[in-house]
Design a protein that fits this description.
The complex is a heterodimer. By secondary structure, chain A is mainly alpha-helical. Chain A is built from 7 helices and no strands. Chain A has one domain. In chain A, helix 2 packs antiparallel against helix 3, helix 2 packs across helix 7 and helix 3 packs antiparallel against helix 4. Chain B contains 1 helix and no strands. Chain B is rod-shaped. The mean pLDDT of chain B is about 85. The chains are: A mainly alpha, B mainly alpha.
């Protein structure tokens, strides 16, 4: 007989191991990348920064897809609502890290920690929108009401993701072009940098998936405990009513 | 190693580790609470 406690399972163990290996490889290779003529050692941040940004897009994309599935009557299920909320929370962590690492990269290469450039401003707006989404989920309301308004908010907020992604092409910005565009032949990014950057994308995707499985299970446990405590409270109230003269 | 590069990697790894630990610990404590609630209140001995 197994005595499983917490949210771990064979799936999370496999995912966690793969994520840890990919992340360790990204860090090891990223920190040994050669210094470039333009940026010196700072270019080593390419191993983690674009991967973090990708993981935040992925997280908010999953939030939007799960929200749409909740809103669609045929697929409506509380699991989509829990998935949407869990993914948004992880997305906020990745967005905050994208902003932090971008700022750290920007200081020595641009000379400033922050500039109100389109990409940076939209990333900050994305963070604010999803923090608002998480706050909205905490507003007390019946489960269905909470799920409906959260789903609508998620579908509105996700509009900022593609705008943010293409901001570097649509507006003149200090930020470099899209990282994925650097992987095509004829670009000015050396092969080793492309390889390590793609490994960073894989590592952050695996970390996101591992966190998501755990976070969804935590959300399910929270819901189950809420239901149990509500049932206990109703039972006590009924007993009081019977005992009252 | 360059300080900015170390800071970038350090903040990323520490934040991800801290968030992961928080989620896993919360899962463990909720799982314990759920199994205690399911087994019911302790029986009082007279």
């Amino acid at each position: 007989m197994t005595n499983r406690t917490g949210t771990a399972s064979a799936l999370t163990l496999s995912l966690g191991l793969a994520a840890a290996l990919a992340l360790a490889g990204t860090v090891a290779l990223g920190l040994t990348l050669p210094a470039t003529v333009e940026q010196g050692e700072y270019s080593r941040l390419i191993a983690i920064h674009p991967g973090l940004a990708w993981a935040s897009y992925l997280a908010f994309g999953v939030t939007a897809a799960a929200s749409a599935l909740w809103l669609w009557p045929r697929t409506r299920s509380s699991r989509w609502d829990l998935l949407a909320g869990s993914s948004a929370e992880i997305g906020v962590v990745f967005t905050a890290l994208t902003l932090a690492t971008g700022s750290i990269w920007g200081r020595p290469t641009w000379g400033v920690w922050w500039v109100w450039d389109a990409r940076l401003t939209l990333s900050a707006l994305m963070l604010a929108l999803y923090l608002g989404y998480l706050a909205l989920r905490r507003v007390p309301a019946p489960v269905d009401v909470r799920a409906r308004r959260s789903a609508i908010a998620a579908l509105l907020a996700v509009a900022v993701v593609p705008v943010n992604h293409f901001a570097v092409e649509w507006w003149r910005t200090l930020h470099q072009g899209r990282s994925l565009a650097q992987t095509t032949p004829g670009n000015d990014l050396d092969g080793i940098f492309v390889g390590v950057m793609l490994l960073g994308f894989l590592a952050m995707t695996l970390v996101y998936c591992w966190l998501l499985v755990h976070r969804v299970r935590v959300a399910r446990l929270e819901d189950r405990l809420d239901e149990q405590s509500l049932a206990v409270a109703l039972d006590e109230r009924r007993r009081e009513a019977v005992l009252a003269p | 190693m360059n300080g900015y590069v170390a800071a970038g990697y350090g903040i990323t790894l520490l934040t991800l580790a801290a968030y992961a630990l928080r989620v896993v610990w919360r899962g463990r404590s909720l799982s314990r609470a759920a199994s205690e609630a399911a087994s019911g209140p302790p029986v009082e001995s007279s």
